[in-house]
Write a structure and sequence with these properties.
Length: about 375
């Protein structure tokens, strides 16, 4: 199956042997009857497995070209499960530009358990090599990064990870498998905040992992069940429903994103626009080679780097709702320094470019002319 067919049918064979319903039923049950201990039809208890969640997990695996999918109660719960593969003394090399909540999980929870993190710029992946030692177990990267839209070369990172026998995990939240498929590029684990583009309607908080290796999948399933951060059947159903339009939504997100990036760069009040589709983006060539298009996430700074002006702009936007999150059909704006990335110390976040005037846009699928008019009236040009 090609991608646009997989979003609708991937992993969805025989979802309802009872009545042949086209959508998988919502199995709103905690448990399953057994004829004798162990005598059941494949499901015992809904933390360990639920048929609606299982249909979703197969769909996740399908769209990421993987073998095994796992669904969690949030994106952070999915990342948490990956980190539980580690033990005290292990080291992780992570990009220094990443979602603030991932940074908080790494530094405020896992550093306390004796895991060491190196946060480094990965625009040039050769930097990774310097930080590898015999304790390095995991390379964690986002690409495009949140919120600076940096691009990291997944294939080159995978070559390094393989050479040293280190796991490579890619947070594919911003790109989605419509744009980029990290497992095909050599990553071991793909992670999603499915809350975003995969769900697509800002109504479900969920996380996903997809892998190819059976042993790795078994270790992650063990953690999923043992730690228990699973999602419920209603949310699994909503996610399956959202996934079916991922490809058409992404196509429009990309079209609108391009027009808005071009409008912003032409506005004399704007200092810089971060969007990987620009030829002068530092890793534009890598973006072109590993992504099918450039997505609907854009960040920008106004001239003069004025905090108050940035706040005024996000307050004045009318169609773009000022809100945390991204990836839904509706356009959102955000002020990373005070919202999504406030948990990263100012010095650290400014090193990565998250300055006070940075504004992040999640470009939705409304009429792009209305979106540009909205930006014009808020920015004032
Ligand atoms: O919110 P949750 O589903 O737990 O996912 C966390 C997460 C992980 N990775 C990336 C790249 C993310 O963007 C997020 C969540 N991000 C936001 C809420 C945000 O507004 O950036």
């Amino acid at each position: 199956m090609k991608f646009n067919t997989k979003t609708i049918h991937g992993g969805q064979h025989d979802v309802d042997p009872a009545y042949g319903s086209v959508m998988p039923p919502i199995y709103q049950t905690t448990t399953y009857s057994q004829t004798t201990p162990g005598g059941h039809k494949g499901f015992e208890y809904s933390r360990s497995g639920n048929p609606t969640r299982a249909a979703l997990e197969r769909a996740f695996a399908s769209i990421e070209n993987g073998e095994y999918g796992l669904a969690f109660g949030s994106g952070l719960a999915a990342i948490d499960a990956v980190l539980k593969l580690l033990k005290p003394g292990d080291e992780v090399i992570s990009t220094n530009d990443l979602y603030g909540g991932s940074y908080r999980l790494f530094t405020r929870i896992y550093e306390n358990f004796g895991i060491k993190f190196h946060f480094i710029g990965m625009g040039n992946v050769a930097n990774i090599e310097e930080y590898i030692n015999d304790k390095t177990r995991l390379i964690w990267l986002e690409t495009p990064t949140n919120p600076m839209m940096n691009i990291i070369d997944i294939k080159a990172s995978a070559t390094i990870a393989n050479r040293h026998d280190i796991l490579l995990a890619v947070d594919n939240t911003f790109a989605t498998p419509y744009l980029q498929q990290p497992l095909d590029l050599g990553a071991d684990i793909v992670m999603h905040s499915a809350t975003k583009y995969l769900g697509g309607h800002s109504d479900v908080v969920m996380g996903a992992l997809v892998v190819r290796d059976k042993k790795l999948a078994e270790r992650l399933y063990f953690i999923q069940n043992a730690s228990g951060a699973v999602c419920g059947p209603q949310d699994s159903f909503l996610m399956l429903r959202g996934l079916k339009t991922l490809h058409v939504r992404m196509q429009r997100h990309c079209e609108n994103g391009r027009k808005i990036a071009e409008y912003l760069i032409s506005n004399p009040k704007i200092e810089k626009v971060y969007w990987p589709g620009f030829e002068n983006h530092p890793n534009h060539e890598i973006a072109k080679s590993q992504m099918n298009d450039f997505g609907g996430m854009i960040s920008f700074v106004t001239k003069g780097n004025n905090y108050d002006e940035a706040i005024r702009i996000v307050e004045n936007l009318k169609i773009f709702t000022l809100a945390e999150s991204l990836g839904g059909v509706e356009s959102l704006s955000g002020h990373p320094a005070s919202m999504t990335h406030a948990t990263i110390p100012k010095k650290e976040r400014e090193k990565a470019g998250v300055v006070d005037s940075l504004i992040r846009l999640s470009v939705g699928i409304e009429d792009v002319d209305d979106l540009i008019e909205d930006l014009k009236q808020a920015i004032g040009s």
